[in-house]
Design brief:
alpha/beta; TIM Barrel; 8-stranded parallel beta barrel
C-alpha cells in the first residue's frame, strides 16, 4: 500500500499550512500532511509557507525576525491565521501517532519542533525533512527520529551520508523515478517518496512501479488510489507488504 501525503494540507479548499487545511486533509483520509515549520524570534515553531512575511504598515521581514504576536497580525483572515505547531499537535491528542511530515529549513526550527512533539507524546513518530544540516542536528539529538532525505541524484546517497543520517525515506521528484531507480533505492533499504505528483495517470503509474509514498496538492485523486476507491487501482503486492513491514511504515496515520 502506498502512503498519501498532502502538501500543506487541503490547499484546494483552504490556504496551506493552516488548521482548516490540515483538518480537511485528514478528514479526506491522507496518511500524512507535510507542513512547513519556521521559528519566530521569541522561539515559537509556526506553520507558514514563506520565509518572508509582510506585516501591515511594515516592510517585508523574515519570519525569524517576527514575534508570534507580530506574525499573528500579518493575517486578519481567521482561516489564513498562522498556527503554532503546539496548536496543530493539540488537534492530534488521542491519536496513536502524529500524521505529520515536518519540513524545517533551519536546524533551530527542527529541534524546537522535535521538542514540541516529545512534550505532546509524539516523540520519534513524525517524519522530518529539510537540508542535510537540519537532518544532522535532529539525528545528533534523537537517535530514533525518522528522517526523509531529499535526493534528486542518480543512485543511492553516499555511504557517509547514509551512515550519519540513517534516513527512512528518500524524497525524489517523480520525473526522476523509474522502476530501476525505485528498485535500487529499495535494495539499499530506503522507502521512496515521489514528489510532487498532481496528475492522476502519473499517480497510478508511480504506484504501479512500487513507490512507498506520493506527495500531492490534489489529495482527493491520490486518496482514491491509495485507498483502492479508484476503479482499477493497483493492488499491493506481497513484496510491497513485506517491505512496509520491514521499514516500519503504517497506513494509519503515517510512518511510525
Amino acid at each position: 500500500m502506498t502512503l498519501s501525503i498532502a502538501l500543506r494540507g487541503d490547499t484546494a479548499r483552504f490556504p496551506g499550512n493552516t488548521l482548516p487545511a490540515l483538518r480537511s486533509a485528514l478528514r479526506a483520509g491522507v496518511d500524512l500532511v507535510k507542513i512547513d515549520v519556521h521559528l519566530t524570534s521569541d522561539g515559537y515553531p509556526v506553520l507558514v509557507d514563506e520565509r518572508v512575511v509582510t506585516v501591515p504598515g511594515s516592510p517585508p521581514r523574515q519570519v525569524g525576525d517576527l514575534t508570534l504576536a507580530e506574525l499573528a497580525a500579518a493575517r486578519d483572515d481567521v482561516e489564513r491565521r498562522v498556527p503554532t505547531l503546539m496548536e496543530v499537535l493539540a488537534e492530534f491528542c488521542g491519536r496513536d501517532a502524529s500524521p505529520l511530515l515536518i519540513d524545517a529549513t533551519a536546524p533551530e526550527a527542527a529541534l524546537a519542533a522535535d521538542t514540541a512533539l516529545r512534550e505532546h507524546g509524539f516523540g520519534d513518530q513524525a517524519l522530518f525533512t529539510g537540508p542535510v544540516e537540519t537532518l544532522r542536528a535532529l539525528r545528533a539529538r534523537s537517535p530514533g527520529v525518522r528522517l526523509m532525505l531529499a535526493w534528486d541524484q542518480p543512485g543511492a546517497p553516499p555511504e557517509e551520508t547514509a551512515r550519519s543520517l540513517r534516513p527512512v525515506f528518500l524524497g525524489t521528484h517523480y520525473t526522476l523515478l523509474n522502476r530501476e531507480t525505485v528498485g535500487e533505492m529499495h535494495r539499499h533499504g530506503y522507502g521512496v517518496v515521489a514528489w510532487t505528483v498532481n496528475e492522476f495517470p502519473e499517480m497510478a503509474r508511480l504506484i504501479g512501479m512500487g513507490v512507498d509514498a506520493l506527495a500531492t496538492e490534489r489529495l482527493d485523486d491520490l486518496v482514491s488510489l491509495t485507498t483502492g476507491r479508484a476503479q482499477g487501482a493497483p493492488r499491493e503486492t506481497e513484496q510491497g507488504a513485506a517491505r512496509r513491514t520491514v521499514q516500519g511504515t503504517s497506513p494509519t496515520p503515517g510512518p511510525a
